[in-house]
Every structure is written in structure tokens, then in C-alpha cells.
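Friendly challenge for the regulars: who can give me the C-alpha cells for this chain first? No prize, just bragging rights.
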Amino acid sequence: MLKYARLPLCFRVSSLTDLHPANIPLSLYIHMPWCVRKCPYCDFNSHAVPDGKLSLDLEQEYLHALVEDFKTQLEFAQGRHIHSVFIGGGTPSLISAQGYQWLFVQLKALLPFEADCEITLEANPGTVEHDPFADYLAAGINRLSIGVQSFNTEHLTKLGRIHSNADAISAIGLARDAGFQRINVDLMHGLPEQTLEQALLDLKLAVDNGATHISWYQLTIEPNTVFFRTKPVLPVDEVLEEIQAQGEAYLKAQGFINYEVSAWRKEQPSAHNLNYWQFGDYLAIGAGAHAKVTQPDGVYRFQKTRLPKDYLAKVPAEHVQFKRIEADELPFEFMMNALRLNDGVAVEYYAQRTGLNLDSLAETLDSLRSRKLMVDDAMRLACTEQGHVFLNSVLEEFI
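First reply, four minutes later:
Bragging rights claimed.
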């Protein structure tokens, strides 16, 4: 776990090398911390709103706080424009489309967005949780990520979700009808008492109903969740392995490309997530939001005050907790992201985005390549298929 020390926004220390942020894409993460109800598996920074509806006064107060927060980060842009935006939560679709339209106008006036900027909104299927999808499209959002998790009503109940199978199917159809051409569907597998057939049916329904991108990941029980305390019965390892193998085979047969550990696409990759995995930069606004920025003297992470009430009560400069990523931490930090991609990254990204010389890793890379865990390619840093199976062990070699 990263530890953060409180430092002023102007904090700088000397660096061993000179970095050039202008060469690194800059994204923006926006955190909306409220949801209708907290799910028992969720360890994200999310908080249930009274009566399941966000008041207009609270929405407007929070949106204004986001703008003030953004103003404090402009120095980190280093002349760059915003490459992509991801609005996560919580349930970001509890915020009105009109609210987002206002927010984008304010942010763009402070720091321009690139002409083809990808703007993703996480949305839940329940109609009580969002405005009409066409309104979000008109506000400037051009990609949806719909948190379906499962199309099985029994599993949805166990997961604490408030939508049904019909709601999930309807939401994807409504998004397509509204004009969204890029629709990600979030699905989990390895759910309590889930069978192989049920897991495969979830994938089939996502494909059949028009998902262009699928984030398909195994349920993990995290500390500080209801599931951690109640210990639900999960499928045994043999079933989990079969779900993984047959699920991957099905998605490939349907023309989906597995470009990252849990990401499958029929369209272009998620520009925002790709920037994360390629060790790009991202600003962050909102309660509990995390950021990574490159400055000429080094690479930094920072996070914001977690609780919404505290975030709203403080002036923006008091939200921030900084940590410099030291030179001996950067190889692991970089590889932890880059090696999640099936195709890896171009070798020049390492020096460009860490300020370190790749020659310092020559012995480690030679060893991993000789064991067929990384591809033997002078132009690319990537794991082999076997390397992805043992990814945690590969990453440990860069610590």
C-alpha cells in the first residue's frame, strides 16, 4: 500500500534525470462518490445517498468544488491538453446530464480537451439512477461503461444490485438507441454459487445485446466489505479455471480481442485505461480521487480527501496528499501497468515515462526472456502467454 505524506502543491525535490511531460498523454479522472446503495462486495469510495436520490443542491455544490479542485492542478499540465476523461464512482449517472454539460464547459475553459477526447461515464442499469442516455450524449459524453455485473437476477440479488436482468438488457438497448456507439459492459465471474453455464450465459447476453467492449473480471473478496465479513460460498478453483478458459474461448470466437488482463474489445481500446496501463499521466478531481503526474524533476502520485463531507468542507489546497515515486520504485510501478497489456508497450516508453535507462534492467529482462516469460523483442516490453499466467511472479522481479 502506498503511503502518502502531506506536502504543499508547490513541493519539488531534485531529480537524477530530466523528464519531458509534454511527451506524455494527460488524462483526467473525475470521482462521483455517491450511489443508491452500497454493494456488499464494493471497496470503492462510495457512499449511499439519502432516499437514493442526489439533491440538486448537493449536486451543484459538488460540481463547483470539482472546478475549484481542477484549478489547483493546472500547473501539472505542463502545456498539455486533456487526452481522455473517465467519470467513475460510486454511481456517476446519479449526476444529471445538465450538470455534466456545465462541468465540461468550466473545465475546458481552464484546460482544453483534445478534439477527439474520449469521455467515459460509468452508469448503472436502473432507470432511477440516470437521466435519458441521449441527454448524456448531448452533454459531451461519448462512451458508456454500464455496471451490469451479471444478467442473472439471483446473482444480482446476492451482489446487492438494485437492477434486474430486464433492466440490464434494456439499459444496453437504450444506450444504443440513444446513439452511443461505444458501450462497455462490466461483468464479474466467480460469483457466489455461480455455475460454468451461468457465467457463460452472462457473456453471451452481453455480446448478443450489443456490447462493443467487455470488462470481465473475477470477483475478489476485499477487506472492509460486507462479503469479507459474511464469507459467501464461491465456486471452487476447478470451476473458476473452467469459467476462465471457456469464457475466453467464447469471446475470441465472437471476434473480441483480449488486449488487457480483463479487457475485451470489438472496437477501439479504451483510450483512458490504455493511458493508465502505458504509464501515462492523469489529473484527478473529486473525493478520494487518485492521480499520477510527471514533472521535469520526477514522477508523483497524489490523492484527495476521501469522505465527501470533508472534501466539500476543505479548500482545494487542503485536499491533497502527495507521494514522490522514487527511482527504485519506478521499475515495478511501470511494469505493473505495462505488462497487463497483452501487446505490452514500446521500449522507448520506459525511459520517456520514468526517466530511467532501460539498460539498468538488462539482467532481469534477459532472465525473463530466457525463461519464455517475456517476449524476445528489442522493440517491445511484453509478457508471453506463459508470462501472463505467472504475471505476479514476473512483476516481483522488478521490485
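The radius of gyration is 21 Å. The CA atoms of residues 207 and 254 lie 8 Å apart. Your move, everyone else.
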